[in-house]
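Entry type: protein chain
Record version: 2
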Amino acid sequence: MSKTPRTTPPQLVATKPYQTLVWDITTLPLLTRGHNTYLHCVVDLYSRAIVGWGIDDQPNTTVAEEIFTQIIATATKQGHQVEMIHSDNGTSMKSRKMQQFCQTHGIVRSHSRPRISDDNPHVESSFATLKNDPTYPKVFEDKNHARNWIRTWVDYYNTTRAHSALEFFTPHQILTNTWKGTWAIRNSAKQRLYEQNPTRFRHQRPRVRTPEPEVYFNLTNTPEHQGNTTLINELMQ
């Protein structure tokens, strides 16, 4: 009996914004029974920021291409380059049109292993956060209602909601490298508390953690992949 060949796990790494993007499409139910609209969502692996999204009546490669075109323009303007796009094995993701788009822009494509749902966890986590939000409508009146709600939520997710995987900075702060000011405030407050009562910290100065300088998925946690190695004097520059 033949067996399904084992495929290599996708290996993703990001050391700067826009370097590696992950994307997927999720269903948003409409008020009319049996009708849906579809959210196309792109997440920057490094910052967890939602850097592009679109709504359409069905999974649509053209919509995805428009989203990525805008993302590439934004990244280029900010001095960054999109190097890899990761997705699952959906028809829109593996279409010839997306293949040609990536070839045109010199982007490497990466896909999840067949029947391995955990191979695109970062964007799936964003979908879970979205649909578990207390304000999520469960069903939308129409496509415009969905579009307006998603726009408001994405702004909240990127700029207001502190992310535990980012040491409780926001995705926008990591994406724009503006988190250091907030870190300095936190560190100053912790040091004042230490000076006032060292025994509270067992006589050890508190260490305010910094975001991981490297985000990776399916890579071995070897010494060269250790996180939180940024020195304090580098942060204060």
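Comment: The two ends are 62 Å apart (CA to CA).
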